[in-house]
Amino acid sequence: MARSRILVALVALVVLLAGCGIPDSGAPIVYRAVPPGGGDRPDPPDARSNPQGPQKGGTPIQTVEGFLVAVGSSSERSYATARTYLSAPAAWKPAGSVRVFTLSSVTAVGRPDSGRVRISGQQIGLINADGSFTPSVQAIDRTVQLSRTGDVWLIDNPPGDILLRSDFFSQIYVPATLYFLDPTAQRLVPDIRYMDASGSSTDRWTAAVRLLLGGPSQSLGGAVRTAIPANTRLHGNVVQDNQHVVADVSSEALDSPSLWPAMVAQFIWTIKKVTGGEVRLMIDGREVSTIGASSGAKVDDIVDQFDPDALTANLSAYRVAGGVVQPALAGGRQVPAAFSVTTGVVAASMSADGGAVAKVGQAAGQQTLYLGPSAGPLTPVLTEPKILTPTWEFDHGGAITAINDRELVYAQLNRPVTPIRSPELAAMLGKRGRIVSLRLAPAGVRLAMVISDGSGGSHIVVGVVKHNAGESVSVGNLHVVSSQLIDAADVAWNNDNGLVTLAATSRGEVVQYQIAADGSNEQQSPSGLPTVPTRIAAVPKQSNQSTLAAVGGRLYQFYKPGWRPPAGHNGEGLVIPATSVFYPS
């Protein structure tokens, strides 16, 4: 069974966190250490159980521990119960960022009756005003003074900000997927926020739409756009009406007719994902289906056109073996013509729409990147000592790869290869770090990388790709979402906000990690693999059995609860050679 180390599951925040902005630039932050091999934890206290306030005859330590539990349970944001632990409750006006932290200890300072108590732990992230989570590590070391009032110890100087214990989040907060647009306004890009699970469905649905109206999170800043015109407002609440969930927005939504389909898609897919129901979108009381009909755009067609789950539907996997690209599994689609006449391949990839392919060939100690349409021919565009497997933008507009373990480059069909600017990445790599693998998310925009520290340690890093004026490309807003892995060699996207990687433990076992792309959650489970895979292929929205890996020159497939060679007709494990494996992506 997977051992979950839940580090946040986060806060809903439209109400709670006004003004706690996070800088969108600067050096990337390693926000937590992942102990190789993990370890079981005792169950956390139930933060939903309405703590009763400080107890008569309790100790200063018990008062501080109760205060931290009460803060974690105060989803109504007035912190009424938490204030009962304070000697001057009305004077407490917490401000600034909400700090998610793992609690290490609550200890007395000096004599037990001195009333001084120290709170120690590690901050793992900050919750932003827009409901998003930003990894950020630093020590938490606060000393509070208590005084006795009758038989009760009360806190005189509570922390000036909110300290939220990480082990409460999965109990009381739930993620919500909002959708914004890639720079071309052709595809939806997920943006994960966090809602208060204790509120009603209407509360959560309404909060999600208001967050959508507020624009993308800071982590996606500059890399996505919105088609929803400024000043568009939500009328009332998002409500259930018979078989539909209904949202009514103001007439400002009509102000950008050229982006009408994209705007409708943002609203409907966000509400659909948050509520799980069928959606009726209204503009000043009129159904968009009637408005859309007059403009020639049918709502059902718009929903299908922008379906975020369709980006990776019905894909076949391919493998590289003996320098040749082949179908990964029996019954898979034939390889594109551009690969069928190709030998000497060490790595290959294909755009998600199947329109373009790339291969890396090797000769005389050099590697050459070839690009071309899937029907061929392939053209050499770059030769370097080392080139990583390219990762494609969805519409095969371009591919990103890394050369010589250190530099990102952007390659397009029939255009020169250009460097990608990323001062944050350069700072992260330092003198010894190297890029081991990289993958664009299915909708593009977000880039996940495996970074080696040069001494066997690996980090999973996520950033955003920005297409700037003058056709330059940059990668920024980097955050380490999993650290201190051992010998991780690849990472793949397996859902809108999820990554999968495999790494070794200090005991030599191979462990599978499921990692939230915003760094908010991580799970690990035994894999049963003999060694760490050199390449992983996963398809978001498809079954776990679609996940493949090249391990020790052989193909493995994920079958719950672990990995094994693909099964033949009689259930026996097949020996299928593979030095690399990939889906169109």
Question: Can you offer a commentary on this structure?
Answer:
The protein has nine helices and 35 strands. With about 575 residues, the chain is mainly beta. The protein folds into three domains: about 5-170, no CATH class; about 175-310, no CATH class; about 310-580, TolB, C-terminal domain (Neuraminidase). The strands form nine sheets. A five-stranded antiparallel β-sheet has the order 1-30-29-28-27, with no helix packed on it. Helix 4 (about 200-215) packs antiparallel against helix 5 (about 260-275). The chain is globular, with a radius of gyration of 26 Å. Mean pLDDT is about 85; it is low at about 1-40.
Estimate the helix proportion, in percent: 10-25%
Report mean pLDDT, rounded to a whole number. Answer: 85
Global geometry: globular
Q: Please report the total strand number as a whole number.
A: 35
What's the number of structural domains?
3
CATH homologous superfamily title of the largest domain: TolB, C-terminal domain
CATH architecture of the largest domain: 6 Propeller
Taking pLDDT < 50 over at least 5 consecutive residues as the criterion, the unreliable ranges are: 1-42
Number of helices: 9
* CATH class (first level) name of the largest domain: Mainly Beta
Biggest sheet overview: 5 strands, antiparallel
Estimate what percentage of residues fall within beta strands: 35-45%
CATH topology (level 3) name of the largest domain: Neuraminidase
Looking across the biggest beta sheet, what order are the strands in? 1-30-29-28-27
Q: Give the termini separation.
A: 30 Å
SS class:
mainly beta
Mind telling me the C-alpha Rg? 26 Å
